[in-house]
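Researcher: Go.
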Amino acid sequence: MFEMIGDFFSKLIAELCRNGLENIFNNINATAENIGDELGTNPADYNPAIFSLLERLSETVILPIAGMILTVVIIINLFNSVLDERQRKDPFELYIKFFLKTIIAILLTTNAFKITNYILEMGQGIVEKAIQVLNNDAVINLNENLDNFQAFLETLSVGKTILIGLTLFITYIIIWIIHILSYVVILGRFIEIFMRIALSPLAFSTFFSREFNGIGFNFVKGMIAITIQAFLIMVVIALYKGMLVNLVVDISTEESLNLFLIQILATSITLIFSLFQTNRIANSIFNAN
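Model: Structure:
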């Protein structure tokens, strides 16, 4: 009688453990796919209400300030041009250059919000191609491994099976927390994009200033870097899934199960560190601050 009850609970817990392990990998696959969907979304479509609000703020609050900065830059440029002896020899050329620079500077500043969005859209094309390639690779599929895992658990005592079940539950919680942190990275990237887009007129107003043009060029490099960051995030996710695929082995002993869970946790923790490094790596490539 007691042996039958023990066998019943052993099989029940073994099935729960099997489902727990399957849920862990389903969560990993779903998270990787969701991250790809998030990164493949244009900022204007990510949250249209916020994007529209930022566009109005940029046009009504930031653009007038950028206009004042641009006015100072234009006056300084005119003053420097008049003092330049080489340009004073040909006043006509001086005023033509000044007029063209002023027109271009005004167009850049007044259309900074749109230009910045175009930069993001061009980078989005690279990201979408990467998503199409990377999402088709390294899909984690346990299949037969789960059956072997359940059969192995059914040979153990109820106490050991419960202990393994608790270990799987803790592993699931840790991976769930790690994946929340990965979404924090994605959300932080979008927040940075929104802030940069809103403040873009200030950066573009400095392009034709000898003293401050580094601000504008650094801003553009930063925007390119943040689009490349999305590509790097997809590469990290693809590597993560690829490494987990290699970890899926026949779990027929307690030692192999423990090693398997440790490797999952180590790989997932490495994922988080790598995701937080993508911004630094992208900025270092383009020498952006």
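Model: The CA atoms of residues 78 and 226 lie 35 Å apart.
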